[in-house]
Design a protein that fits this description.
This protein has 12 helices and 16 strands. By secondary structure, the chain is an alpha/beta fold. The strands form 2 sheets. It has a 9-stranded mixed β-sheet. It has a 7-stranded mixed β-sheet with strand order 10-9-8-11-12-14-13, sandwiched between helices. Helix 8 runs parallel beside helix 9. The structure holds S-adenosylmethionine (SAM).
Length: 431
């Protein structure tokens, strides 16, 4: 067994409840690379991974909101002086040009908000304008912090992957923020300037009551809104919206448009197929759409949709997907002409073929995933074995790794990290 204690560690943030999905995604990523990795989560919204070499970037993942390379984990911080040990842990990362202090986005960590503000102000003096990269301090609890950094351009565009967007009071639904965030996060400034210009045209499938149409109209784009439901009267008064009570799956535009946006509640694969039809047929130049995820096996659902979208990449489109901050049980995908910015990178081998390969022949080294409340970790090879009908306990090729600290904490049993549930089911979460 490889001792992964000293291995580089990555910490990632996700939406609460999606830790298993991010762990599945990470396990699949490492399995495809044939790399050993330990993947675990010991508190809501945070997933961690240790691997000998190679780490995914944010563009490789849809369920991660932000990530950092962990330089130090500080437990049992003195509540009277947290600044000194955190400053000491940040010192090896200097000089850095930016510093983010945050707490994971969860109910349990909400009370830490004032402390985050105070630490940001105190630690801010360590920033050097001529430095490089971004230092990060994630306060997991009042006495527990992760300290690390992100190379230039590697961190999320917004701290913690949370853009502070103001809800426009005149917008007809809060959904409007999803499209606004997609434009901010899944497109760069040049693409926004080139593709979201006034005078353009768009079709909005599943448009009622008009939150997404509102975003397009605000940019002076003409919209054909398809939905049996009603559209907000103020939008209709803009003179930029034509409302058609038609079926979004049957509607065909009389002439090509610049944008297709789609927020219909349907199976992800069916929506993905519709998007591919529009883009392949040249009915639109670019698209943003939402994929509603099932309650279980959400990574599998994304993988299936991703396989459907694969031909678009061969056509030169850049396909980017992310569970945005304003998304709930869903993902948002942007398909942009050209490949200036690929989010996430959908490698040729990715998608269902990737998981097929992993399931038929387990990777040389297995990625291990431990989720809160699920006992000892399920490895990528375990998942592969399950799919191929092999029983657990049967020999597999490949190594399993787990951080040595974890083994210590569980008294030599297999729970990979302190604070995760042991095989007996005892959770010892540290706050
Ligand atoms: C989540 S809501 C859309 C909200 C909208 N994007 C907004 O920002 O206000 C989903 C909409 O899809 C519509 N819808 C579902 N299936 C549809 C179909 N086959 N054709 C057209 N509209 C459909 C529903 O009527 C519903 O209004």
């Amino acid at each position: 067994m490889t001792d992964t204690t000293a291995l580089p560690e990555l910490a990632l943030l996700c939406r609460v409840g999606f830790e298993p999905d991010l762990m599945d995604e990470l396990s699949a990523w490492f399995a495809v690379q044939g790399m050993a990795a330990s993947v675990w989560s010991e508190q809501p919204a945070v997933v961690r991974v240790r691997a000998a070499n190679g780490q995914p970037g944010l563009p490789d993942l849809v369920f991660a909101r932000d990530l950092m390379r962990v330089a130090a984990e500080l437990r049992d911080l003195n509540v009277k002086d947290r600044v000194s040990p955190i400053s000491a842990a940040l010192r090896p990362l200097q000089p850095f040009s930016a510093l983010t202090v945050l707490t994971p986005d969860s109910e349990a960590t909400k009370p830490l908000a004032p402390l985050v503000g105070a630490l940001q102000a105190r630690l801010g003096e360590l920033i050097h304008p001529a430095g490089r990269g971004q230092a990060q301090v994630w306060l997991l609890a009042g006495t527990h912090a992760l300290v690390g950094g992100s190379p230039p351009g590697a961190a999320a565009a917004f701290a913690g992957g949370i853009p502070r967007l103001k809800f426009p009071r005149e917008a007809p639904s809060r959904s409007t923020l999803k499209l606004e965030e997609a434009f901010q996060v899944l497109m760069n400034a040049q693409e926004r300037a080139d593709l979201l210009d006034a005078g353009g045209s768009a079709v909005d499938l599943g448009a009622s009551p008009g939150g997404w149409t509102y975003q397009l109209v605000a940019r002076r784009i003409q919209v054909t809104a398809i939905d049996n439901g009603r559209m907000a009267p103020a939008l209709m008064d803009s003179g930029l919206v034509q409302h058609l009570r038609e079926d979004g799956f049957r509607y065909r535009p009389p002439r090509p448009v610049d944008w297709l946006v789609c927020d219909m509640v349907e199976k992800p694969g069916k929506v993905a197929e519709l998007m591919v039809r529009w883009l392949q047929s040249g009915w639109c130049k670019a698209a943003v759409f939402n994929l509603k995820l099932p309650m279980k096996k959400r990574f599998d659902a994304w993988n299936q949709a991703r396989a459907v979208l694969q031909p678009l990449q061969r056509m030169g489109f850049s396909v980017r997907a992310r569970q945005l901050y304003h998304d709930r049980e869903e993902l948002t995908v942007a398909v942009i002409p050209g490949a200036q910015m690929q989010l996430p990178r959908l490698r040729e081998a990715a998608g269902s073929r990737e998981s097929d390969r992993a399931s038929r022949s387990p990777p040389p080294a297995a990625a291990k995933a431990t989720r809160p409340g699920k006992g000892a970790g399920k490895t990528a090879a375990d998942a592969a074995r399950q799919k191929s009908g092999q029983r657990a306990g049967q020999p597999i090729s490949g190594r399993k790794t787990a951080p040595a600290g974890a083994r210590k904490a569980s008294g030599g049993k297999k729970s990979p990290v302190p604070g995760t549930r042991s095989p007996r089911g005892n959770r010892a979460r540290k706050r």
